[in-house]
Write a structure and sequence with these properties.
Layout (H helix, E strand, L loop, with lengths): L2 E7 L11 E4 L5 E8 L5 E9 L12 H10 L8 H10 L3 E6 L3 E9 L4
Parallel strand pairs: 1-3
Antiparallel strand pairs: 1-4, 2-3, 4-6, 5-6
């Protein structure tokens, strides 16, 4: 399963950069990385898109992906309870959301640069 990630970084002196590179994690997962460096951008956004048409297959309840998206975003982690994750996100002026299209499941996390 491939993942496409876009990261917006700020504070760099170079002009806008839109080069895409294929990167492999230490665990062997490949993803595409495209830094977007633009003047005046103050947040870092990480977007991941997983190829999937599941949400739009015949016979599926179309509400399930949207309900599941809310549960995933507010579900906590192995180390942190859900309320702790939500509190941390709020304290850092961050947000996350998850949505589906006809051919991808897409997740985004955004936070101010100082919390990166």
């Amino acid at each position: 399963m491939s993942v496409f990630a876009v990261i917006i970084l700020v504070g760099c002196k170079s002009e806008t950069s839109r080069e895409v590179s294929l990167v492999t994690t230490p665990d062997g997962h490949q993803y595409y990385f495209m830094p977007i460096l633009e003047k005046g951008v103050t947040d870092i956004t990480i977007t991941a898109a997983w190829p999937s048409g599941w949400a739009y297959e015949a016979g599926k309840n179309q509400a399930v992906p949207y309900v599941a998206a809310d549960v995933l975003v507010s579900g906590g982690t192995a180390e942190r309870a859900p309320q702790d994750v939500m509190e941390l996100m709020n304290d850092r002026n961050s947000y996350a959301h998850f949505y589906v299209t006809a051919n991808h499941a897409i997740g985004e996390v955004e936070f101010p640069k100082e919390h990166g």
